[in-house]
Write a structure and sequence with these properties.
Elements lengths: L8 E9 L1 H11 L9 H4 L12 H15 L4 E9 L7 E13 L2 E10 L8 E11 L1
Amino acid sequence: MTGVAVGDAVPELVRRFELADMVAYAGATWDWHRMHYDPAFLEPRKLPAPVVDGQVFGALLAEQVQDWLGPSARLTKMRFRFKNLVFADETVRCTGVVTAVDGGLLTIEQKVEVVNNGGDGRVAVAPAGCEVRL
């Protein structure tokens, strides 16, 4: 992609996490911690629903950028910090903006917010971002 400039918005990525998706992800990543699927484990810990695995947010942020820039773009660095838990049956929105362009290297700042029922605005992941070589 050519013509990317500082201030350009990365197209949003919106994803809902159903329990079946979370179990499939646990199987794919071999992460079978009970907090991701077991109500009996969650109840004494006062968690309202199974917790989305934190690794998935790195995957979503990478997917957001790759969907926008295409298969030739290469993520060379990624960083993200968790702010709040995300639970089964919640929807998140990944947003981003280009903050620097240096030749073929882009710097992008991103974040993930929970957007249930029109948007409660709870930040799940921030700060976050990546560097991408075009």
